[in-house]
Amino acid sequence: MSGEASSLSSGLVLQGVDDVEDYIWANEGEGSLPWDRFSHVFDLVQNGNQAFRENHFEEAINCYSRANNIKPGDPIILGNRSAAYSRISHFLKQRPASTSEYRPLNGLDPTIHAELALKDADKEGSLDKLEKYELAQDIILAGLQVDPFSNPLRVSLRNLESMLPTMMSKSLGKPERSDDFDCTLCLKLLFEPVTTPCGHSFCRSCLFQSMDRGQCFAVYLHVSSYASASIHLICFLMLF
């Protein structure tokens, strides 16, 4: 934002205090500090003044605030910080809304963070139902990188971490099921599979109930005769 403030002030006159007051090298009387601490305060104010004159208002405010923590209530420090706040407020007032939408000063809009995190939450829920817990955990962590304060994602992560050891122990040693032996008609494991002459397999009941014409559903080739159940495929499936 400091760079934008510098470019903006080169074309527009920012209202408010034109300059800040230099800090005097004097540490006497009531409220005096040890010289090492006073020297640190002096350096902070000088750095803040330089940042102010270069239109780096956030850096100037930070320096003045640190100096005020060491020597609270100092009129010069408070006055300079007030001037920096005044200049930065006028900069924000003059900044067009279209510029803020195109280039936000403080990151993405919170609603955008929420929308991005919601997609990860939905994907995590789907993976959870598929019992892909490790992948679901990775999706949650990726969503938290986008929006670290998303309550739905944080709750989902806690719930998943609490149930992950139990679910992993249940699935330990259990082979991952593939869809190589699924029927393309009912999308379930082949039952009494029938193989067509073109080499595609379906459940016997699915094939007979759905075939209203003499063509294979996969390649639309003519099925000249109904193939009987493949004995070899049945024997292979019975091993499971």
UniProtKB/TrEMBL annotation:
UniProt-listed SMART domains: RING
Domain RING-type: 183-216
Matching SUPFAM superfamilies: RING/U-box, TPR-like
InterPro entries referenced in this protein's UniProt entry, alphabetically: TPR-like_helical_dom_sf (IPR011990), Znf_RING (IPR001841), Znf_RING/FYVE/PHD (IPR013083), Znf_RING_CS (IPR017907)
GO molecular function, one term: ubiquitin protein ligase activity
Bilayer-crossing regions: none
Gene3D superfamilies according to UniProt: Tetratricopeptide repeat domain, Zinc/RING finger domain, C3HC4 (zinc finger)
Keywords: Metal-binding, Zinc, Zinc-finger
GO cellular component: cytoplasm
Coiled coil region boundaries: none
Name of the protein in question: RING-type domain-containing protein
Organism lineage: Eukaryota, Viridiplantae, Streptophyta, Embryophyta, Tracheophyta
